[in-house]
Amino acid sequence: MIKREICGELEKCARLLPVVTLLGPRQSGKTTLVKHVFRHYSYANLEDSQVFELARTDSRLFFKQFSPPVIIDEVQRMPNLLRDIQVHVDEDGTPGRFVLTGSHQPMLQAEVSQSLAGRTTLSTLLPLSIRELGGELSRDELMFSGFLPRIHAFRLPPRRVLSDYLRTYVERDARQLINIKDWQRFETFLRLLAGRVGQIANLEGFSGDVGVSAITLKNWLSVLEASFIIFRLPPYYRNFGKRFVKSPKIYFTDVGLAAHLLAISSARQIAQHPLVGGLFENMVVIEALKARLNAGLEPNLYYMRDSSGVEADLVLEDATGLRLWEIKSSMTADMSFARNLRLLRKAIPEVVSADVVYAGEEWPLPPDGKFINFTSMGDAALCGGEEDG
Predict the structure, then answer these.
(1) If you average pLDDT over residues 287-304, what whole number do you get?
(2) Which of 96, 201, 369, 383 is least surrounded, with the fewest CB atoms within 10 Å of its CB?
(3) Share of the chain above pLDDT 90, in %
(4) Residue 241 — left, alpha, or beta (φ > 0 → left; ψ -120 to 50 → alpha)?
(5) Which domain-ending residue is among 280, 301, 320?
(6) Bridge-based pairing state of the strands 19-23 and 98-102
(7) Domain that holds residue 358
(8) 62-73 tens-digit pLDDT
(9) Same structural domain for residues 101 and 55?
(10) Phi, psi (5° rounding) for residue 355?
(11) Alpha-carbon radius of gyration of the chain
(12) Is 70 exceeded by the pLDDT of residue 239?
């Protein structure tokens, strides 16, 4: 098993409150992780039809058969079970009695907020991080293969795994969450999003290409976000007036899925692909997100762009101020990469650091910044974060 960085956070959560809730996309490794961390717990998988029926028809017998401490997998399939868990923990509030996992964020979070408020912690597990993989793969291999644990644990062909993932999980979840009658149009929408990673998605512009209304596309985007397929990076514009862009940018939680949707068939194609910059930016932004979530911290991640196009690709707000990063797929340092960072740092007093993330070696960036290799983005995203959290 690949050691996951969130293990310590889950163990800490289980010492604090009676319920630990772990969210995340399908195939991100939630089941393997909780079985490893909580190896002595009983285990109930609500994807199992017999277990599901028992929970649906006789919850008393269910909790007798799967007595605490227990892991309940895919709990979003039976949200009513949360009320029974509430009764159990109100009777016995021993920390760590229940470990819940779920794949649909808003649905499960709404139920948890209603039934288990003050009784649970919420953590999120995304696919593997670059740090968890240990630096064995190159920039292009990482973008092609993506970060689903099965691909790396069993050395499986990325294209086959990602194709199955798209059909088996993405399509099924989409059909469960919303009535999608034409999967081909939904897949066309996915491919259009993949072609615009790191950009502001213009749903009105997509409407004609997909053949559905912008309102429908907005609903579809919400479904993709609910299933952890895409991540919306919000803009940072506090106190900066109307001259700052206020629409989110779109990234895929797994860059390998984006590459698959773009019909990239090998790692060798990445370097020459016209979207190599967007895919690289996608990978770096999600690496920062993973680091924050694995440490149990709020993401606090944004981008910044003013009306004249001056932009920082990634912004972290912490207790000390704003940390900015420009993201470039290049392997060669170029001082021109920092032009926007210098302009923003000069204009915004809250900026405390401004660095360039790229695919080369660490290098000074005068007067007080640096070029950092993308494999260090996880560490950079935690700078000062442990104290903040």
Answers:
(1) 97
(2) 383
(3) 79
(4) left
(5) 280
(6) parallel
(7) 292-388
(8) 999 999 999 999
(9) yes
(10) -125, 165
(11) 22
(12) no
Confidence of residue 1 (pLDDT cuts 50, 70, 90): confident
For 383, which DSSP code? T
Residues 148 and 257 in one domain: yes
Place of tokens 């997100």: 289
Residue 42 shares a structural domain with residue 141: no
Strand-pairing partners, residue 251, are 231
What is the three-class DSSP state of 356? strand
ω into residue 234 within 30 of 0, thus cis? no
Which pLDDT does position 307 carry in this prediction? 79
Q: What is the pLDDT of residue 288?
A: 98
Do 167 and 108 share a domain, yes or no? no
Structure confidence by residue, pLDDT tens digits, 9-62 = 999 999 999 999 999 999 999 999 999 999 999 999 999 999 999 999 999 999
Let me know whether 89 and 44 are in one domain: yes
Largest CA distance in the chain: 67
Contact 363, 271 (CB under 8 A): no
The pLDDT tens digits for 190-234 are 999 999 999 988 888 899 999 999 999 998 998 899 889 999 999
Residue 340 lies in a domain: yes
Same domain, 84 and 153: no
Q: Which residue has the tokens 């072609």?
A: 195
Contact 29, 4 (CB under 8 A): yes
What values do phi and psi take at 47, rounded to 5? -75, -20
Question: Does residue 303 form part of some domain?
Answer: yes
Q: Which of 98, 124, 150 is the last residue of a domain?
A: 124
Residue 308, class by beta-carbon neighbours within 10 Å (0-12 exposed, 13-18 middle, 19+ buried)? exposed
